[in-house]
Specification:
alpha+beta; single chain; 3-stranded antiparallel beta sheet
Length: 168
Amino acid sequence: MQLSTPRLLLRPGVPDDAHALTEAMSDHAVVSQLAHVPWPYSHSDALAFIESMQRDELPRFLIFETLDSGGDLVGGCGVSRPDGHLKLGYWVSRKRWGRGIATEAVAALLETVRSLGPKQVYAEHKPENVGSMRVLIKLGFDQVNLESPDYDGPKTSSSAMVMRSLKL
């Protein structure tokens, strides 16, 4: 499956993408904002990640910018169920920050996720990651109070993360 927006193509990775993925994930400024990424990121990490995308039943994509760059890898997005709850993850290469790429890509991904039938999706971000916070708020995510007795969603990967949820 692949998705397209006015300026992006979202598709699962293929082995030929491993070099570009390794290069993109070699930026510590990007990786430091993600919950679970090996560091330093190697070519074999990229190949393993791409292989896992092919096996996964849930949508996970690499993001390619089609208008301005002629098809450069600029990020990734997808959903997983690490603890039984649907969890969104995404990243964009630093030189593309602030251009609305994450918002555009994740909006397209969420349309596909809605068609799968879940009622809610979760995402988390570091408190200092204002860009990611803005993406999630634009897309309708609300902050979750993890201390609430009614909350049975996923726990954050660390105490330094802000959990948000979106009812689908």
